[in-house]
What we know:
Largest sheet: 9 strands, mixed
Number of strands: 15
Strand order of the largest sheet: 2-11-10-9-8-6-7-5-4
Strand content: 5-15%
Radius of gyration: 34 Å
Family: Belongs to the AB hydrolase superfamily. AB hydrolase 4 family.
Keywords: Membrane, Transmembrane, Transmembrane helix
Distance between the termini: 47 Å
InterPro entries: AB_hydrolase_1 (IPR000073), AB_hydrolase_4_sf (IPR050960), AB_hydrolase_fold (IPR029058)
Pfam families: Abhydrolase_1
GO molecular function: monoacylglycerol lipase activity; short-chain carboxylesterase activity
Shape: globular
Helix content: 40-55%
Amino acid sequence: KRHFNPQFLHALIFRTSRLNSPPLSSEKSRRVSAMDGCTAASDSPYELLFQALSLIPTAHYAALLLALWLVFLYDFLEIHLLRDLATGFRGDPVKLTYNASSELYRAVASKCQVLRGRYLPTLWLCSPHIQTAFLTFFGNPPRFTYKRVMFYTSDGGTIALDWVLHSDGGGAYTSHAVPQKDDKAPIVIVIPGLTSDSVAPYIKHLVFKLAKQGWNVVVSNHRGLGGVEITSDRFYNAGWTEDSRRIIDHIHQEYPDTPLYVVGTSIGANILVKYLGEETVNVPIVGAVAVCNPWDLAIGDRFITRRFVQKLYDKALAFGLVGYAKLHQTILSRLIDWDGLKKSRSVRDFDYYATCILAKFETVDTYYRRSSSVNFVGNVAVPLLCINALDDPVCTRESIPWDECRMNPNIVLAATQHGGHLAYFEGISASTMWWVRAVSEFLEVLHSSPLKNRPRKVGPCSTTTPLESKIDQGPYVNLMEDGTVTAVGDIQRDKIAAAQPDHTAEENRETITEDEEETSKDAATSKEDPAESKPEAAASDQKKLNDLIAPMKRHITQLTRHSRTSIWLLAYIAIVTTWPVLGSGLFFYLKKKLRSFLLPALPSR
């Protein structure tokens, strides 16, 4: 017993089992002999383990590596095939967010079968990244021909308007490029996304569907896109609404009795919502649709640099922007930092070297915050449908203004679990796009509803501008590295006004003249009756003070409501992570106190 060896017993049992087993093949005999040699010659368990692993066939290792690679790709590409399988390939319901008293939902959205149904992506495109890539490189766009009309702005810019008429029949040719004056078919204006134009696959899907439905469609290409040269020093950006405003007013003047609708996609959706919020009721359109709106550009900038896969999209978008700039190098090279632009590896770099200089923004964060359409959601006064995918790899769900959309009775927000960025392919052959069907049905129901002829007026939510404080009323807002928000003063404002074009300066001079006239009138009134002017002045000062305090109170309330869960979560994490240290210290402290308390009471030996 004193010299008992467990390995000897193991070898003895193994040899005994061999005597009672049938004869082995030559290969198995060689492996068994190798194991016998390992057992007899080595006492190290690691050597035994390596020897055993070496006996596993190479094909098994290859299968294991393949399985691990598939698991990695499933997570990296956010594939949801197993989830679709678990739901029986029924798809996920569309989540609608709207105001409880919304007439738009009762009269329009509730009658849209697509919005009230489910969305199931194409099975072999069961990933937001695969869907977005398929849209970019393939897209299955329908074939038809546009008819181009050039529009010239007052500042010398050139914009290409590509028309498709309902009389074309989805491909037939007519002699006229624009609708006739007596054509009463509704007109849809489409605003493409970043670096996209009328030939983008998703734009052609939408245009073809609406034209086949009996609508006249015009795509308003951005400046410098659609094969058109830049003819002025003005360039488009995510917050530039002036071109859309001019196009909409121009088409309304040409066809005053024709209902107008607008559809914006991606950055075009941001421009559209910002335009609607700026103009409130002063828009000649009946309704609008915003698809895959980024909403908050500052949050989107953080999101697109967060993970490796998002950084790939960032580089791809930057590559497209640099390519767009190189098409117009002769003009841009004298206006911006061209050497810095050529080195741009992200959208933020491009905005730093080009957009901020051209649009006269002081910082990139200033540009993002002032151009975000989330600041104008509360002022939208026309029927608006917003469509977003929660798995959008470019426009994150974190920037969707759920509460603001719910507060505005003129907005219905449709959120889907899947869809990618502007993809939403469905069917086995991926020949149709879900959001295109949703937009066409929504516009058709809206066009036949009483809302088409209702008098447009500002709702209660439009009396104030939500999410916009008084500090943001200056031309620029700067976000410092320490988190401080500063506004540009009046001196810098005068400098910026002096640097603006002539027409802007004239508008500013007219505004200043009107303000001076009102000021002189107020001064004359105060001289005539000083006793009555003092209470009025005090009331005016109190109103201004309330106007300054009210937005701050609203923001603090919103931050408190949204951060309540986060604060408790952070407190829980702090307690759990510091408990090993704090718990040990507390244990020794209580032990010392307890010992000092009990020792005097114990009997001495």
